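G., the chain you wanted modeled:
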Amino acid sequence: MNDTLLTALQYYGAGAATLAALIVSLNLGRRRTGWAFVIFVTSSIALIAWGFLQPDSEGIGWQNVALLIINAIGVYRYLILKDKPGDLDKTQGETEK
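Predicted structure as tokens:
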């Protein structure tokens, strides 16, 4: 495999995950958090590819398969689901403390 491509996948995955984590940590609102999860998804895809194409890096690949599923749930909850995640508790009769 081309070393330049592998290096690009590795550094893109790390940089994108860092940027997405920063956006989530800033709590800039529902829509921006949803887009941060989209960035997390692209990071996971890059690191899955890198993990399975780079010798002896399958652990990172499998970790990012799991993270891809988690991040896809984040995209669904923040960009696709109409109710805010906290609103689900209110509709089931629970109150906020």
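The chain has four helices and no strands.

Shout if anything looks off.
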